[in-house]
Write a structure and sequence with these properties.
Length: 131
Amino acid sequence: MLRTVLLRHTLTDGSAHFDWMLDLVGSGDDDTRSLRTFRVALDAGRPDRDGAFEAELIPDHRRRYLWYEGPISGDRGDVRREAEGTFVLVRDQAARLRIVVDFGAGPIAWLGEPLGDGPVWRFTRDADTSR
């Protein structure tokens, strides 16, 4: 099982968003592997409980954020864990991501697809939670 975390990232100006991080299988050890990261507006929905949401694909983050909470260097605010869990990667292609996530309340299947050519993705729940 792979790990996932939903962090609330509060910036120094008081604004906030969620960072949803997925520890997708990649090359490298724990120090060099990174997390695929999506920025989710606070009012857009949550991957641990809502039915659909949009998220912006942002640069990968270091794996330490699977465990880390607290201030971020460079005066970039701080992060606090909202949810954590495990997931199974069903499909990972450039134009589609399908995962089955369990944040502790049972499996949720997500289908993610980019909206056009930009970094915004749309995630919708899939009734089929089989792998």
